[in-house]
Amino acid sequence: MTGRFSMAGKVAMVTGAASGLGLAIAEVLAEAGAHVALADIDREGLDRAVGAIAAAGGRAEPVQLDVSDRGAIRQATDDLVARRGRLDAMVANAGVTAGPGYLTELGQINAVDDGQWDRVLQINLTGVFATIQAAAKHMKAQKSGRIIAVASVAGLKSEVMCGYAYTATKSAVVNLVRQSAMELAAYDVMVNGIAPGPFRTNIAGGRIRQPDVAQQFASMVPLGRIADPDEIKGLALLLASPASSFMTGVTIPIDGGIMAR
Ligand code: NAD
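A: This is the predicted complex of the input protein with nicotinamide-adenine-dinucleotide.
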């Protein structure tokens, strides 16, 4: 990768990088020349992911952590900067499902479980905030950097297939992007969001891989199909690289046309 899309000499961290969209994003940043720290709660998945990136000629390291542990994400970010001297891109991607949407009885408002609500907020909202905060500390000091938060089309509109805590946290992430982008603009730090439609990953135990579920999601997409994780790579690299030097505060749908419908 050359020119405005090059990440040569840059240092990046991606949370939730052992699987799905986070892994695809870590792969493309490494392919573009960055040294990438892959942060995830899943140790075995991390080792596989880092091994695969190294085998493809990329530079990657594993960091096992739970993003809902604010101290852990702060410490891991400080440690990465201490080791590599800088932080150019942070991708707050780790996230979990909140179960089915209200079409299913289990997903209806009176069935929402307090424990699950709290856990989803801890990971999808507090974890994303702590990740942005940890990166901002270093990027403000170095007066440069790119922060990307992975939201969802379910944060831009109501979504029958997703649980309440999921849609609420994803919507909150969209405004965290705007709010932090405004503060950090003075430091030449850009903050943007990605709002994916349905992608074939391991979220919700890989439920989206079941043919009937995949078909249900595909029927909502104007392009008529769900996406492969590799299809996130172009947008992620755009937002992490010098190619997006005049973009900040936006969350971009990558959804086969869902938001245009
Ligand atoms: P995935 O399950 O394949 O990957 C998520 C990764 O995050 C896993 O490796 C998991 O171990 C890790 N993780 C989960 N909880 C964690 C925690 N507390 N701390 C650290 N790591 C943790 O799912 P995915 O679909 O790739 O999800 C990535 C992001 O994309 C999520 O934020 C998700 O909400 C968002 N998203 C996905 C879709 C989709 O259709 N797949 C659509 C819209 C948004």
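The two ends are 34 Å apart (CA to CA). The chain has one domain: 2-254.
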